[in-house]
Specification:
Elements (H helix, E strand, L loop, with lengths): L2 H16 L5 E7 L6 H14 L4 E5 L24 H12 L4 E8 L4 E9 L5 E6 L9 E3 L19 E3 L7 E8 L3 H14 L5 H19 L2 H4 L3 E3 L6 H18 L4 H6 L7 H6 L2
Parallel strand pairs: 1-5, 1-8, 2-5, 8-9
Antiparallel strand pairs: 3-4, 6-7
């Protein structure tokens, strides 16, 4: 597929998913550890700011449960350690335009959850939901926690009964699901360095963690028959060509369907100048 064909295809997908009469446009970003979910989320925030679109980011990492004080291995890839009831409550608050939101925060250095924290609902036009399992929130099937439990290894879970009908329904969301991928070796290399530096995990914890990361990725995150992503970006945010095409397609969508004025867009103080523009001013 040529770049032109890819651009046309991406624009068609974005348009079909977001050009609706729904009040809130949801961009759900799902991918394995180190695939660039937060990087893409931040890039979209900047792009939305340039386009004068209001945006809120819901990071599923903030809804991890506090690690039990028993020094047992904690599998962060296991869906059951997320406080899904709180996530659903927050999404419903957006969907129903409630005035106050109930949010949580999670710190990896001590594996501690804090909250609830109450904030005013900014009532955004765009809601970015990023996380390992974000697509399941908007899929036909969701996890069955009678079978999926944090103290069960992947080998102990019966995947024939690990899912059930998704109980949630949102009236005011239009949803675009973007999936990111990354190779096994790249993931392990990046994850090892990050967990040692940013999350203060010791070597033994990292070793145990990495035993489960790729298995969980294949079982939960790359389960496209369940999650049905609209767009898949191979190699995640390392795929600069696809990311640039995605950026251009969002801009074209906003121009065609949401009245984006490119003159204002280009004059925005948040816009990073092209290198050639910098040369002209030197």
């Amino acid at each position: 597929m040529t770049s032109s064909e890819m651009e046309t295809n991406l624009l068609d997908i974005i348009t079909s998913k977001l050009n609706t009469n729904k009040k809130i446009k949801v961009i759900a970003i799902q991918g394995p550890s180190t695939s660039g979910k937060t990087t893409l989320s931040f890039a979209l925030q900047v792009l939305l700011k340039l386009a004068n679109k209001s945006c809120y980011v819901l990071n599923l990492d903030d809804f991890f449960q506090t690690k039990p004080q028993n020094d047992e291995f904690y599998d962060y890839e296991n869906p059951s350690i997320i406080r899904w009831d709180k996530v659903f409550h927050l999404l419903k608050s957006f969907d129903e335009e409630r005035e106050v939101l109930e949010i949580f925060k999670f710190k990896f250095k001590n594996s501690l959850s804090s909250g609830p924290i109450y904030i005013d609902n900014p009532k955004p036009e765009y809601l970015i939901v990023e996380g390992l399992h974000s697509h399941y929130l908007f899929s036909d099937e969701f996890f069955c926690f009678k079978e999926v439990k944090f103290n069960k290894s992947l080998e102990q879970i019966d995947f024939d009964v690990a899912f059930k009908k998704n109980p949630m329904n949102y009236q005011n969301f239009s949803v675009l699901k973007i999936g990111l991928t990354i190779g096994k070796n790249e993931m392990i290399e990046i994850r090892s360095k990050r967990d040692a530096k940013e999350r203060s995990f010791d070597d033994e914890t990292i070793r145990k963690q990495l035993e489960y990361v790729w298995q969980g990725t294949e079982k939960w995150i790359y389960n496209y028959k369940k999650t049905k992503p609209d767009i898949i970006i191979e190699n995640g945010t390392f795929n600069f060509e696809c990311l640039n095409l995605l950026k251009m397609c969002f801009i074209k969508y906003w121009v065609q369907y949401e009245g984006l004025n490119m003159n204002i867009f280009n004059l925005s103080p948040f816009k990073v100048p092209e290198f050639t523009d910098c040369e002209k001013n030197t």
